[in-house]
Structure formats: structure tokens, C-alpha cells
């Protein structure tokens, strides 16, 4: 091994200490200074107040190795470069040095301290848009250091802009540094950022702007530098490895995971167990909301993998009473389903579907549990059934509605309540500036419009579905109270702005104890308990008009 993670950490911090930076300790994963984010996702996060101008007790040059959690890429975990938990090395100038020194520091550290060969090195700079000019200045600084023009690419905001970490705060154009990881082929003369052999190892952000409450990019009062180098990635590529798991960081962890598990599962278990340990150490406990909910999802995913493997190894990876309790609770849920499973003979797609519907037993677990019993169970048939069932239930409710025989209103009532939950989910995920712009409910589906101008990511859609389904699963009461419009506003009830309300209004509340999930002024009707809604699924997310997005969703 050319460099261990401990050596890189040490080298980085010492280098910047020599350059006048004070080494500060990693802050908690639970942000103290920034209510706009759930977790600390970058080294700059604990420094937000200081980036905004408050005086830091340790001066204007700081460096740290910050533990971070990012769950936005959770579906990518298990590939070569994504982790939910990682460490980020960084150095900051709080109104101190600017772009030139920042780039020169980065270059000196990479070339002199780490010995990165120039022929394996390339950079990107911001190409410019309405918010900020093309960063020819950064490119010139790189060129003066000896980087050829062909190895400098200019890219748009999606690539070369960082921040704010939450909804508002410091941000700016950045310059990213790339390392050619392929050992069998030399790096091409001309840098193509799309070529996957180039791995980003460091990011220098020129935080000269601030995104304000109106989502406008304005000049910052204090101009800062924020940089970030992902420790796991850097250690991997500097050692000639093509993935973060093949580093000393994960060596001991993999020894505790049964070798026969699939590679992707092993990597997910390795990553999630690190994240779980770190979150528990910072006082997070599994629950159905916010941080606790993320922790619960990380836990349940690997508990299911362990269960499937028929081995017990998680207790060696996560030594914690909090985890042990969650594990035994979740195993009980899994077990109830298994008890039912054991009563059944020859499990075909039909029976598998029942076990899935009623006990949440996933297809893979069913297959694994007893290959003999499930020899007639095929994935395709199972999925076909799932699809057919979904269509059938939609047709059935549509039929009832048309015929007017059964209580068509029942399904529509459920959708009314689901609408409130969806709004609550979107406000949690996207921010409190989200409000309802319209809705349309039939017995078959709901349509919901809200103010937002960008397409939601797959992860955001999943998060919204999960949020709603979680509230359904924990079966919270839906209550209402009549009051004056002023009182309703006073207690923070949301209203639909186009609606004209009378003097007295009904306020519907969905709450988990003291935690209010949703509170809206609404005429109803609504279900009494969220548990009756079934399973919530978003079918489509599209633009409705300028600045308005539309979601179509169903209850299955
Ligand atoms: N805050 C910047 C990042 O996370 C450095 O990439």
C-alpha cells in the first residue's frame, strides 16, 4: 500500500497547518448550526455561520477531517465510489485567501506531498451562466501552474457549482480535480470529463455568493474558500484501486462479513454498518421520522440481508444495544411472516403474493427460505401478479365509482387524506416553501400540483413515497377541530391560497404524539386513521406549468 487512510489524513492536516491553518475536530453528524439539513453532509456544514461572517475562535484559516452522511445516493451504494458514510478532508479561508492561493495549495499538496503525476491530472472550471461569469481566472491559475489547456474542461452549474448545502446559504463556482485511475492505459492528452477513468478527488469551491430566501444568488459579504477531498476515494485511487471498498478503511469490516455473500450485499453491509455506528455514536436513534427514519432504513436493510444469509454477523459489526433492539423488533416482523409461510404448502406466485401483501415478506426471502417449497415460484409470475393486482384494484374502484353502487366516496376519502400526507412529505423533503397549487381526486387516483420548478429526482420521489407509507404504517389518527380562520392561522395550519374560507374553518391534524406531521385547513372528508390507506405509490411526476410540478399517485 502506498498510502493508508491514516497517513493521508495526517499529511493533509499537517500540510495545511504549515500553511497557517488551525486543525479543528470533526463536528457531530447531527448539525448544530444548520436547521436546513438533516445531517452533516460536507466539511463546510458546521462552518456555515462563520462562512456567513461570524468570527471563528480559531481564526480565518481552518482545516479538518469531517465525518459526513449523504443519503441522496443511497441506491448507488455498492458501486465503486458511493458511500452513505465517509470522511471529508477540507481547508477553509474565512474571508482570508482567495482563488489563487486555494488552487496553489491544492496543486502543491497533490504534486509535492502525494506525488500525483501531472500526466494523470486534469481539472474542471465553471463555464458561466446568468448567475456568475465563466471562470477563466481559475483556468489561468491552473495553466500558470503547468496544466495544459487540453486538460482543463469548462462545465455548467450541474458540475461546477457547489452549495448551498441546505436551501439557503453560501455557494459558488468550483474547480474540481481529477485523477486518471486506469493503470493499464495512459491518460489521453485531451481531458474528457465523461470518461469514467477520471475520478474526482478534490473540489475547491469559491464561495463568493449566497443563495437567499428568495432563491436568488447574491454576492456574499465575506468571500470564502471551501474545499473537500473524499478520504475513501482519494485513498483508493492513490493506491491504484478502482473502488473505495478495496482500502484499509474497510479491511477489518470485510473480515466480519461472510465471504459467500454477493459482492454488492457485502459492500452495502460494510457501508451501512459504518454509517449506523457513526449515527448511534452521535446520539441518533431509530424512529419513524427524520434522522431516526434514515437510521432505521439503513438498519433494516442490512438486518434483512443478515436474515437471508442465515448467519449472525451483525453483532460483530455493530456493538450497540440500540441496534440490537431494532434488530430483534424487525426480526419479529419478519418472523410473523415466516410463521405464516411455514403453514403454507407449495408456495406459488399466488401464495407468495399473499405473503408479500400481508406480511411484507420480499420475494427473495421467500425463495431463499425454502427452495423446495418454492420450486414452483417464478419471479416473472410473481411480478405479473403484482401488476395485475394493481390494475385490478384500480379498475374495481373505478367501476364502483361509475356504477355508484358501492361507497365510491370511501376511496376518494382516502385520497383526500393521502393528499395531506403528500404535501407534508414534499415540505419535509424539498423545504417549507412548498405549498399546494391544486389537486384533483377521483376514486382511482389523486393528482397534486405544487410550486416547484425542477424535476424531482428518483431519490426524492422514493423519499416522498416512503414518508407517506411510513405514516400509513404507523397508523396515526386523523383528527379535526373547528375554529376561526385566525385561530387556524395562529396554530400554523396550511391553507390552499386560492381557496376562500369562511369565518369558521375545519383544521385537520395528523400527529405522532407531539410531532405534527400535517395540519391543514380543509373541508374534508378524511379517514380516521392513516392505517386504512393501503400502499401509496407515485406514478408520475411532471411539469404542470411554469414553476408548478404535478404528481399523480395511487393507493394500492
Ligand atoms: N463542500 C464541497 C464539497 O462537498 C467542498 O464538495
Structure characterization notes:
The chain folds into three domains: 5-72 and 79-238, 2-Layer Sandwich (BirA Bifunctional Protein, domain 2); 256-401, no CATH class; 410-555, Threonyl-tRNA Synthetase, Chain A, domain 2 (2-Layer Sandwich). The protein is built from 17 helices and 16 strands. It has helices at 5-18, 48-51, 99-113, 136-144, 157-160, 231-238, 248-255, 263-281, 290-309, 314-317, 321-343, 349-359, 363-369, 379-403, 408-430, 458-473, 485-490, and strands at 22-23, 61-69, 85-94, 121-126, 152-155, 161-162, 169-180, 198-211, 217-230, 436-441, 446-451, 478-484, 504-512, 515-521, 536-545, 548-555. Strand 1, helix 2 (48-51) and strand 2 form a beta-alpha-beta unit.
Topology:
Elements: H1 5-18, E1 22-23, H2 48-51, E2 61-69, E3 85-94, H3 99-113, E4 121-126, H4 136-144, E5 152-155, H5 157-160, E6 161-162, E7 169-180, E8 198-211, E9 217-230, H6 231-238, H7 248-255, H8 263-281, H9 290-309, H10 314-317, H11 321-343, H12 349-359, H13 363-369, H14 379-403, H15 408-430, E10 436-441, E11 446-451, H16 458-473, E12 478-484, H17 485-490, E13 504-512, E14 515-521, E15 536-545, E16 548-555
Parallel strand pairs: 1-2, 4-5
Antiparallel strand pairs: 2-3, 3-9, 4-7, 6-7, 7-8, 8-9, 10-11, 11-16, 12-13, 13-14, 15-16
Helix pairs in contact: 3-4, 8-9, 9-11, 12-14, 15-16
